[in-house]
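Appendix B, Record 12. Input sequence as logged:
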Amino acid sequence: MDIRMRLLVRMLRQQGIADEHLLGDLLRISPDVESLLRHLVAHGTISKDWAVRAGDSVRRKARGVPPDAKTLVAQERSFGQLALRKGLVAVSELEAGILEQQRLFRMNLRFRIGEILVRQGVLTVEQVREILTQQGKSTLRCGSCGAVVVAQEGNQECSSCHGELREPGYLSVVRADQ
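Logged structural output:
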């Protein structure tokens, strides 16, 4: 396994995207970084944007080039980092949430870390919304299909049915279908 592939595997582990079992399977069918990223995008495991950033990051690290400002800002603005910085969660609570997220992912259940931390009683719905706002995101509901999504500011279209996304009248829990 070359240095770029080792770096990508470490990144996938750290982000909680893939566990050892899934990585073993992926490495058997994906001979290089690009094909592994294409496979993960095709199966909806990661977004195209994440794949591009990860590919760039792996190439830079393999050459010994420091990450660019955009990558550093994205890392600093991750949900977990913001929650830690605000003092809303302890490292152990965040780690437990990530482990639960990985366990659920292995069962093909995709939950955002905010959803998991609310269910575990670590965060409140309002605290999750506060962090999402800090990230430039909000929880919206599709007027057509009813899906609940966490969307970037300015995104007004459901990725499933292309219906209009609106502020939900009431959400008692943080739940995202997409």
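The two ends are 33 Å apart (CA to CA).
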